[in-house]
TrEMBL record:
PROSITE patterns xrefs: ABC_TRANSPORTER_1, ABC_TRANSPORTER_2, EGF_1
Protein name: LADA_0H16446g1_1
Highest rank taxon of the organism: Eukaryota
Keywords annotated in UniProt: ATP-binding, Endoplasmic reticulum, Glycoprotein, Membrane, Nucleotide-binding, Signal, Transmembrane, Transmembrane helix, Transport
MF annotations from Gene Ontology: ABC-type transporter activity; ATP binding; ATP hydrolysis activity
Entry membrane topology: Multi-pass membrane protein
Pfam families, per the entry: ABC2_membrane, ABC_tran
Organism (species): Lachancea dasiensis
Length: 1027
């Protein structure tokens, strides 16, 4: 047996013990008091002690010397009387004032010095038990539901009456003292109580039991008959022993037995009270057959409990309801068409209206001409990251490149090419950057540099549903000066497309892995076009030929050469192993190995530098491959190829057959020996690298490591490095006042323009790939038809209430999990946003709002409206007091709120799988505390009690249920009884409060605002490109 069960068994035992001790103590006190105070002497009682010697015993209705008046029950556990409503005091003899709604324990007792009570507003009668107005009864109905004060005199549950005695003889004999009667009955206990008052002082009272309550609707009369009646006098009051008055105490106690009858004409409110023995007394003394009365009654009810009330049949669709539904459908259609028309007017939807000609005057071409030429210099660039020890990824890198020149950053994998390119473009880096980057010999801020550069990433991040023309036009509209006309921007787009030789494919879509589009090389040129359209002075490209075949790679480089030569752009690109003809296109070269500078200067002079240091590239060998090979070093620490020339020769023979020459692989002073060694190494490069990778030793260095150190040292000592420093210094000295600030006065698209362009772009993306949008609409319509059929014409009974609970919960769950599509769509766009934000296309706020307007709204506002238009009339839901529009509004607020919540998760967590898992957990927790699976009122654990406050499902679910059920009367027939229960009563049983409807709506709005702000903050702070 559990401890809790043991304690529950002890409770009555403790009560009995307390009761027994109380009785024994009281009996002892009474006995001692009586023994000390009274003795019998000559038939008279004489006090032997002074009254002040001992206190009287405490009241205990279990003792024979105390009794409960009004025939109230005595609580055997406490020894206290449980008084009738309207009576109080220890023995229930004092009338109470205030209001019946306050409860006996909270009502003040009437002062003995006053004749009548001061009742609270809305209450009346001798002891304030009779309601006077409907508002007084609100406390007896569920919160938020209005009560009704029923005063017709027909008992429903428990009523109270106050009556004036109208027998003429009785009134005359009392000589102006008003006789009155209070009468109350309870249908459930079949009991009534009767009190007779003179001048509002109680004279006697009666208790009536085993009562039957009958009503005659034809004559509109009531007749209550009780088989047993017992009465008692109030000692010392009129008619009961008061001086100068008759005493009927013995008559009431001994003679009155019943049956008693109480009958009323409900129209005239005239009543009579009769009991055989009492009738004889009234007839003998006063000459009347019974007591006649004129009564006022009151009983607090719900309006549906009023006798004769008939609940109206379940409302069918009225003409007004049909008009409302049809009007809403038309409104949604008109808004959809208007939105399409408005967005279609965006420039990005316009057809090209100009044609490209060789002699075309472009009107605004003054801006398009590159008037500001940029010479880029950088000195002692260092980059380090902090782990267990400081690791330098770049060390002392310098270089310069002028307008009309192409600088190539070369080196093996991991040499630091991309890192250096990012630093030169002033991208955000996770480590520490030092050194200087200057334009035209002057320091430049990151903000100003962004105004004159373009940056093409190694990967092509383009919207797959846009055409080539639309993609480049999108960049032009967002980034070109707002003062330019649209036609001028179009012409500029055409010019760039022609420059990059992609004009002929301008109307082809970009495509993706699932939809065929343009080739990889064409995509790369489109990416370049998006940057070139702004006429940047400096263009950075991260491995523009990566992943392309030789033909496409050559096409891309030819375009870049043309840009540099014809338009005086300054181009800086990283490249891995270009073809020999591509290498010849480069003007400047920065060669890196393990973050060290091996060479920086004129590209065509690198062979001479190597030759001067004993390294000669064979005439039939690609110089770019040669440069990579001599700086090669595996990521691991390897041994030298051999310790001695003999070992080297032996190793080379083992991997490459017969050695075609004699001598050591180690560099000799002889140029011929070095050349022969390299030729053999080049012929067996792969085998040698495999050999190096499998011979580890604690000693540092390998062939590449040795070459890197030697070449780095030789370059620092060479004339080429001196020439580089002199060139950088001359650029500093020739610095002019023609700064970036003087040439960046133009402003790009305004916030409003950004918003329109991004919204139209998103809409076109949906338009070209409508599967998600149409799928959402079609599934929602079919689901609406399915639910309408399943819950068709739901009834106003308990089963119907259960069906409504299930229907609303399923609808909310459907829309909740449908928002997961937002995670996928943002995950696909995330990398595009990062690239475009980094290249200064638009502000995060403009993107975020356009995302909400063009993506969230079509998927989160229209589907709930479509579902409501189908489900509402077929299921037969409540159409009273604008319930339909409230239903739609709640669904829309919920759908928007949950979609913003899930979108925020997708923004905060980059990995799609993590976002999905976290979103599922959030939705499941929110569903658990929605109010269906657990009654939130009954949660006692503090750790869980307030978790419902974090559930958006709870607020939406509660408001939907309240909106539907609060005004309904639910009927149920059980065991032949027709039970009618107000919807508000059922709601309170399930833990839903009717008065919280508007609070729930406000909290839904608050959820929307909170996650709208959180999503934007995440986009602004977290979704930032950092390399």
């Amino acid at each position: 047996m559990s401890a809790r069960h043991d304690r529950s068994q002890l409770k009555p035992m403790r009560g009995n013990v307390v009761q027994l001790l109380s009785c024994l103590i009281a009996f002892k006190l009474v006995f001692a008091n009586m023994r000390g105070r009274f003795v019998e002497a000559d038939g008279q009682v004489v006090s032997t002690k002074d009254d002040n010697d001992q206190c009287p015993p405490c009241f205990n209705c279990m003792l024979p010397i105390f009794e409960c008046k009004q025939f109230s029950e005595c609580n055997s556990n406490t020894g206290r009387c449980e008084c009738l409503e309207g009576f109080g005091g220890d023995d229930c003899s004092k009338p109470l004032c205030g209001a019946l709604s306050d409860g006996n324990n909270n009502r003040p007792a009437r002062d003995d010095e006053t004749e009548s009570c001061q009742c609270a507003d809305g209450w009346g009668g001798i002891n304030c038990n009779i309601c006077q107005e409907d508002a007084a009864c609100d406390v007896f109905t569920p919160e938020g539901v209005q009560g009704t004060c029923y005063k017709k005199g027909m008992i429903v549950n428990q009523f109270h009456q106050g009556c004036d005695v109208t027998n003429q003889k009785i009134v005359q004999i009392l000589d102006g003292k008003k006789p009155q009667v209070t009468f109350s009955c309870s249908r459930s206990s079949k009991e009534c109580n009767f009190q007779f008052w003179i001048q509002e002082k109680e004279s006697f009272y009666c208790g009536l039991s085993t009562c039957e309550f009958n009503h005659d609707l034809k004559t509109n009369s009531s007749h209550y008959e009780c088989e047993a009646v017992q009465c008692k006098c109030v000692p010392g009051e009129m008619l009961c022993g008061q001086k100068g008055s008759i005493d009927i105490s013995e008559f009431l106690t001994e003679t009155i037995r019943g049956p008693g009858e109480f009958s009323c004409n409900l129209n005239t409110r005239k009543c009579k009270f009769s009991e055989p023995s009492m009738n004889d007394l009234i007839s003998t003394v006063f000459g009347d057959p019974y007591i006649t009365l004129e009564c006022e009654s009151g009983e607090c009810l719900h309006y549906s409990q009023i006798p004769g009330y008939q609940e109206p049949d379940k409302e069918k669709l009225s003409l007004l309801s049909i008009i409302i539904l049809a009007g809403t459908s038309m409104l949604v259609l008109v808004l959809a068409i208007a939105s399409i028309i408005f967005i279609s007017k965006s420039p990005i939807f316009s057809k090209p209206a100009v044609e490209l000609t060789d002699d075309e005057d472009y009107g605004d071409s003054e801006f398009l001409k590159l008037g500001f030429r940029s010479t880029l210099t950088f000195e002692n660039i260092e980059y380090s990251i902090h782990t267990d020890k400081k690791t330098k990824l770049l060390n002392g890198i310098s270089g310069s490149v002028k307008p009309g020149e192409i600088m190539a950053l070369m080196g093996g994998s991991g040499a630091g090419k991309t890192t250096l390119l990012d630093i030169l473009a002033m991208k955000d880096k996770a480590g520490k950057v030092s050194g200087s980057v200057k334009v035209n010999g002057s320091e430049v801020s990151k903000q100003n540099l962004k105004k004159i550069i373009g940056f093409v990433d190694q990967e092509d991040f383009l919207l797959p549903t846009l055409t080539v023309y639309e993609t480049v036009l999108n960049s032009a509209l967002l980034r070109l000066p707002r003062k330019l006309s649209f036609s001028a921007k179009q012409k500029r787009v055409y010019q760039v497309l022609d420059e990059l030789r992609i004009f002929d494919i301008k109307d082809r879509i970009i495509g993706s892995d699932f939809e065929r589009g343009i080739s990889g090389g064409e995509k790369r040129r489109v990416s370049i076009a998006c940057e070139l359209v702004t006429s940047p002075s400096i263009l950075f490209l991260d491995e523009p030929t990566s992943g392309l075949d030789s033909n496409n790679a050559n096409n891309v480089i030819e375009c870049l050469v043309r840009l540099a030569l014809h338009y005086n752009r300054t181009l800086v690109l990283s490249i891995h192993q270009p073809r020999s003809n591509i290498f010849k296109s480069f003007d400047k070269l920065v060669l890196l190995s393990q973050g060290e500078l091996v060479y920086s200067g004129i590209a065509s002079e690198v062979s001479e530098f190597l030759r001067n240091n004993g390294y000669v590239c064979p005439s039939d060998y690609n110089i770019a491959d040669y440069l990579i090979d001599i700086t090669f070093e595996s990521k691991q620490t390897y041994t030298r190829i051999a310790s001695t020339p003999d070992d080297i020769e032996s190793n080379l023979h083992s991997v490459g057959g017969n050695l075609p020459m004699e001598g050591s692989v180690a560099r000799k002073n002889s140029e011929t020996a070095t050349q022969r060694e390299w030729e053999h190494y080049a012929a067996h490069r792969d085998e040698l690298r495999s050999l190096l990778a499998h011979n580890e030793d604690e000693e540092a260095g390998g062939l590449g490591s040795l070459n890197t150190k030697v070449l780095h040292s030789k370059f620092k000592e060479s004339q080429y490095f001196s020439a580089l420093l002199a060139d950088i210094e001359s650029i500093k000295l020739s610095s002019t006042s023609d700064t970036i600030e003087n040439n960046s006065g133009t402003q790009a698209a305004s916030f409003r323009q950004q918003l329109v362009i991004l919204s139209s772009r998103t809409f076109k993306n949906i338009y070209r790939n409508p599967k998600l949008l149409l799928g959402n609409y079609v599934v929602t319509l079919f689901l609406g038809l399915f639910l309408g059929s399943l819950y068709y014409d739901v009834q106003n009974n308990i089963s119907g209430f259960q069906n409504r609970l299930g229907l609303f919960f399923f609808i909310l769950t459907y829309f909740g999990f449908l928002t997961f599509t937002g995670l996928t769509s943002f995950s696909l766009e995330r990398i595009i946003f990062l690239k475009e934000r980094s290249n200064n296309y638009y502000s995060p706020m403009a993107y975020y709002i356009s995302k909400i307007l063009s993506d969230v709204l079509p998927l989160r506002v229209i589907p709930p409206t479509l579902l409501a238009l189908v489900v509402y009339p077929t299921v037969g839901l409540n159409m009273i007091d604008g319930a339909f529009f409230k239903f739609v509004g709640i669904l829309v607020l919920f759908n928007l709120g949950i979609s913003l919540e899930i979108l925020s998760v997708g923004i905060f967590f980059e990995d799609l799988n993590n976002s999905i898992v976290i979103s599922v957990l959030i939705l499941l927790a929110s569903l658990l505390f929605s109010g269906l699976f657990i009654n939130t009122k009954d949660i006692s654990n503090v750790a869980f009690k307030y978790l419902k406050n974090l559930s958006i499902f709870y607020y939406a679910y509660e408001s939907l249920i309240i909106n539907e059920v609060k005004s309904l009367i639910l009927k149920e027939t059980k065991y032949g009884l027709n039970i009618e229960v107000p919807g508000a009563t059922i709601l309170s049983t399930f833990g839903f409060l009717v008065q919280d409807f508007f609070l729930d709506v406000k909290l839904l709005i608050a959820f929307n605002l909170i996650f709208l702000i959180l999503g934007y903050l995440g986009l602004e702070i977290i979704v930032v490109e950092q390399k």
